[in-house]
Amino acid sequence: MRMINQFKNQMNMKKSRLIFQIGFLCIVFLSISLTIGPQQQNEYTYDQFQTPEYCNQCHNLFYQQWDRAMMSDAYTHKWDEIEYFDLAVAHSRNDPDMEKVHETCNGCHTPMAFLAGDMPPPKPESNSRANESVSCDVCHSIKDYTSDTPFNHNYVIEPGDTKMSSRGSTEGSPDHNIKINDLLGKAEFCGICHNEKSPFGIWVKSTHLELKEGPYYAEGVVCQDCHMPDGPSKTAKMGNFYDHAKMHLFNGAHDKGKIWGTIEIGIAPDRQEYVPGEPAVFTITLFNQKTGHKFPTGSVEDRIVWLHVEAIDEEGNTYHLPVDKKGFNGEEYTIASDALAYQDLSIPLQLDNFKGIRREDVPIGDRIFRMPYFSPQGTMTIMQWNTDSLGVDYRFGPRETKTETYTFNIPYDIAPGELAVKAVLNYRLLVKPVGEFLEVPEEEYQAMLVNEQQTQITIYP
Ligand code: HEC
Ligand code: HEC
Ligand code: HEC
Ligand code: HEC
Ligand code: HEC
Question: pTM value?
């Protein structure tokens, strides 16, 4: 009897947990569908969109620019393929709570496949039309978005003979009609895909929201000003010459030149001269002079920026300087260590007893500018859809200046003379241990130089 009661109790508990979970999921689903509005999944076919090659007949310059940008690789690029098929699609399959989560990826990475209901789309190697990724005709058919905030591909899209443009003329094209639509000149247009909320209601991408809260937006500076700069050019082979044509560069974190110089670095010691045994304190000032949003932004779950500081004496002996702790909440995530993380990879990959992998693998003690994402399992995660909370935000805001101090107790065996102090700020699009573990091509996680600086102090014997 006791056994039966216990069994009943357990069943009841399970039932109420199940009801609770279903209820919770319904609320999440409802709140997302209410705020996003109706989505146009399954509404169109691929044939209703022109290919980029079609537009290339006349808009050849924009085609060549787009072709060199990530927009044209948003579905085909290797790391996207690995994360989509090996993690997101697998996660949808292995975890009933995550059913269909992979379909949302396509809404931004290959909108035509999403609109055609072709999900998951054929793999990139089959060369299907899903490979067109974020194509000309996708963007130029976007008329509007469906809620106050643009996010999670809440576009209203209408393919056809009419192309949307923010330019003030509807004449001139032998091929198609032109409709003036101010949305294309606004940051909100980009926010449709550059803001993302996870199924747990967490902002896991907020580039547009960051811009909106920062100083640039108030001054009328939008995404297009920095990523589609105005240049004197024709917009079509047979068309007019304009002083301000919108260059389709979409250059971001994959462009070394765009990254370079984002942060200015200054180093100042507390004095000029020291003797061994004394502490020297270096204050490093880091100023974000280039981004309208935070740095890093976008795929923040993958990205790290870190500062490596060394002192080099006259005999070439090198001393690594770890950053001084500031004592804020969550600071441990901003100082490199040998901690393990990303244990939730075991869900899509179906690994038993997975202990996790190194959190960052950069020199221990270096300052990291990042924001950690946390999974419902309580681990740090690189799967942004599996994020139910965010940790400390220690990234550079637009025009923000951060200062870091480094205390160096001058060793007695140091060579007297000039001591050089060098600071190098590096950027990685994907933490290295994850890149290695998932066999992502090395170029995806190679360190890129953001900036460097050097100064000298004098050591007396
Ligand atoms: C239909 C969705 C969509 C719209 C609209 C959109 N983007 Fe994107 N964009 C993407 C996707 C998806 C990627 C990611 C490509 C990748 O790395 O897989 C991307 C990548 C980028 C990158 C390159 C980032 C890098 O890591 O190098 C930049 C820059 C960018 N977009 C800027 C813009 C700007 C500016 C606008 C507005 C004018 C805009 N995007 C509108 C979907 C969109
Ligand atoms: C004042 C200039 C400026 C404005 C405005 C601006 N950006 Fe950027 N953006 C940059 C620079 C510089 C970088 C390269 C450094 C970096 O990666 O953040 C960049 C990088 C990016 C990246 C790659 C980020 C990463 O770290 O992976 C994306 C995506 C992007 N921008 C999208 C946008 C979108 C969308 C908007 C508008 C909501 C926008 N940008 C507004 C200057 C700007
Ligand atoms: C047969 C040539 C031809 C083809 C094909 C073509 N266009 Fe155009 N398009 C033009 C010309 C010419 C203009 C007017 C250019 C001007 O303003 O002088 C134009 C104008 C535009 C404009 C308005 C901005 C402007 O410069 O006036 C947009 C947006 C546009 N085209 C997008 C597209 C897209 C997207 C495709 C492919 C789906 C495409 N076009 C295919 C010739 C073409
Ligand atoms: C990520 C979305 C996106 C993609 C992809 C895209 N465009 Fe555009 N395009 C825009 C936006 C936004 C503007 C207007 C920018 C503004 O007003 O600041 C624009 C402007 C234009 C214009 C008018 C130029 C001008 O100076 O006003 C033409 C023509 C055009 N695009 C053609 C193309 C062609 C052809 C392709 C593909 C090779 C393409 N676009 C891909 C978003 C996109
Ligand atoms: C709301 C639009 C949106 C959704 C939904 C979305 N992405 Fe993205 N994704 C983007 C944009 C925009 C970028 C580029 C951000 C940047 O450069 O920092 C990006 C970047 C990425 C990157 C990094 C690419 C790189 O070059 O480093 C991967 C991988 C990726 N997405 C995979 C996915 C997967 C898998 C899903 C579904 C579980 C997904 N995305 C859902 C818009 C989206």
Answer: 0.94
